[in-house]
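User: Fold this one for me? It's FTR1 family protein.
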Amino acid sequence: MQIQALLVMLREVFEAALIVGIIITYLKRTDNGKFTKYVWLGTGLAVLASAGVALLFQVVLTGFAAMASEIYLKVAIMLISSVLLTQMVFWMAKNNRDMKNNIEGKLGELVTAGSVIGMVIHTFLVVVREGVETVFFFAAITGGNIQKGFEGWGAISGVVIALFIAYLFFKGTMRIPLKTFFKITSAFIVMIAAGLLVQGIAILQDLTIVGSVMPEVYNLTWLLPEHPIDAAQYLRNTGVEPQLSGEVGIFLKALFGYSANPSLEEVVAYLGYFVVVYLLVTVKNKEGAAVRKVATTKVKNPKAFTNGSISQNAYK
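Assistant: Here's what I get for FTR1 family protein.
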């Protein structure tokens, strides 16, 4: 869980810090530093709002637990979080190239209008989105104990690393391109999303809500049990200890959704998820390449532009 918390917090906090950093840098560069206090006000309000959402989420989870329905809410959160994590990766891949220009364009409008309230609201919205996503993801990876997730070393480390990387980036000493950073973190986020999807399906099968054609495709408990409890059970049943510790199994289950004895549906869902993500990435990369090719194509004849239109022979 702590590794998951670290990766999620690292990604979310860095995105928020990146956006706030772009806003403040733009304001200072355009001699509008007087507005930075409103940016920090919006950021502070967003953090408080996110904490409020976390508290509300915990209250709702506790209420479901009192009604003995907590497990159903947890499954729903796992499955929805899997979708949101995947969407987050694709959104950042699509928008990180134009993020700076989009943010500065909006800020230019607010500065020109002298809208202090607009500045606060704009900053609040872009930061609170990251905060609410973090709360939702933590509810999924901690099984509903959001407070425990935020108190662990993973969340704290994620915040510290994210802020440090953002600091280096804006100081000009960051050597890793943003594109590379997001690719690396996206790969781990996708693995977490796949793991949540499979765990959700496994719980639905345990609740007999979803059936199974083949309840157990293989069993690797002898090699790598999912949990120390499974290792102890295997030792009692066979008199032989598993090859690897159950602690390793916990780590792999939390990070990659590892299962020692998955059902056919879990295996298909896990592999199918990566196939779908790969196909979507391939399609989006081709679309992006086509757009960039058109944008960078030189015009042969400047006179081809007439009344805002371009003749068919204008491009090479």
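One thing worth pointing out: The CA atoms of residues 8 and 134 lie 7 Å apart.
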